[in-house]
Design goal:
One of its GO terms (biological process) is response to other organism. It is a single chain. The chain is of the alpha+beta class. The chain is 33% helix and 17% strand. It is built from ten helices and ten strands. Strand 8 and strand 9 form a beta hairpin. Helix 3 runs antiparallel to helix 5 and helix 5 runs antiparallel to helix 7. 41% of the residues are buried. The site of magnesium ion (MG) has 4 residues, from loops. Magnesium ion (MG) binds next to loops.
């Protein structure tokens, strides 16, 4: 449906990321809004084209209600010898409410019944991706987007990885270290060499769910500086989890199963989909509901 980048009118900037900028755009012929992610390359950064191509490859193949849809990919950079190397642009469905990071900034923290719905959707998304041999590797609040129906979807495959070479993959070890699993932060100590890569996504999701209930990043104290050394110590060595007193036993168990330091003991996505905390699904809705939408 979207044949030409020129049909899109840039309106505002929705976000800046590592590799590029995301714009809210208007399609003049379809009379609809989309999000346009533009990754820029220059001559000296040819190396980062490969992951970008993988991100495009992944986005073109995934088709799930739990993943942000990509309607078109424009690759103007086939000529990497060119002065500017060119851009890759992704036309994605526009997620009106923004990211879970924005939602948390506004609401400070979420209620358990909302987190239960959120967890279910993220797990369904991960279940789908893992079934396609795709590890997301960057699950964090700013990569979980919310639309005006309150539906949460997984976005941003910038550092994702395809296991077992289903299609050409990059092996970059990037990603936000705050949400990284112990086996990725310290592979030697936590048996990361032969770790099940999918377990890393489960860890990150657990951190996000606990953050939603606490209202701040959970692994370090609110006053602590989130530098690499502090985070690494917290992820790899901290024995106790900060858990809200009023958290239900189901929630506590759910998070503990995700934040099992040893990836061999950590729950899998399919186990978690049957967890009482997720099954409970109090509000029986597919979205976060009025709670999030009303602001
Ligand atoms: P980062 O490196 O910070 O993860 P990134 O360059 O990989 O960022 P994205 O995560 O894809 O880029 O997008 C950055 C931000 O832009 C998101 O956190 C979100 O706020 C906004 N954004 C991205 N895609 C959409 C979308 N489809 N609809 C609405 N907002 C979006
Ligand atoms: Mg991102």
């Amino acid at each position: 449906i979207i044949k030409n980048l020129c049909d899109l009118k840039k309106l505002t900037v929705l976000g800046h990321g590592n590799g590029g900028t995301v714009y809210k755009v208007y399609h003049k012929k379809n009379h609809s809004f989309y999000a346009l992610k533009v990754l820029r390359f220059n001559k000296n950064a040819i190396g980062i084209r490969q992951p970008a191509t993988l991100e495009a490859e992944i986005l073109k193949r995934v088709d799930s209600p739990y993943i942000v849809r990509c309607h078109a990919v424009f690759d103007n950079g086939t000529c990497i010898e060119a002065e500017n190397g060119g851009d890759i642009s992704f036309v994605m469905e526009y997620m009106e409410v923004g990211s879970l990071h924005d939602v948390l900034r506004q609401h400070h923290r979420l209620r358990e019944e909302v987190i239960s719905v959120l967890a279910k959707r993220v797990l369904e998304g991960l279940n789908y991706l893992h079934g396609m041999h795709i590890v997301h590797r960057d699950i964090k609040p700013s990569n979980l987007l919310v639309n005006d129906k309150g539906e949460v979807k997984i976005a941003d495959f910038g550092v994702s990885h395809v296991v077992e070479g289903r299609f050409e993959g990059s092996d970059s070890n990037a990603g936000t270290c705050a949400y990284m699993s112990p086996e990725r932060v310290d592979p030697e100590r936590w048996g990361g060499e032969n770790a099940d890569e999918f377990a890393g996504d489960v860890w990150s999701m657990g951190v996000v769910m606990l953050e939603c209930l606490l209202g701040h990043f959970p692994l370090i104290g609110p006053g602590q500086r989130p530098d690499w050394a502090t985070l690494m110590c917290a992820i790899c060595f901290a024995e106790k989890l900060e858990m809200p007193e009023k958290a239900s036993p189901e929630f506590q168990n759910f998070v503990r199963r995700c934040l099992e330091k040893d990836w061999r003991k950590r729950a899998t996505v399919s186990e978690l989909l049957h967890h009482p905390f997720v099954k409970r699904n109090w509000c029986c809705s597919s979205g976060l509901g009025d709670y999030v939408l009303q602001g």
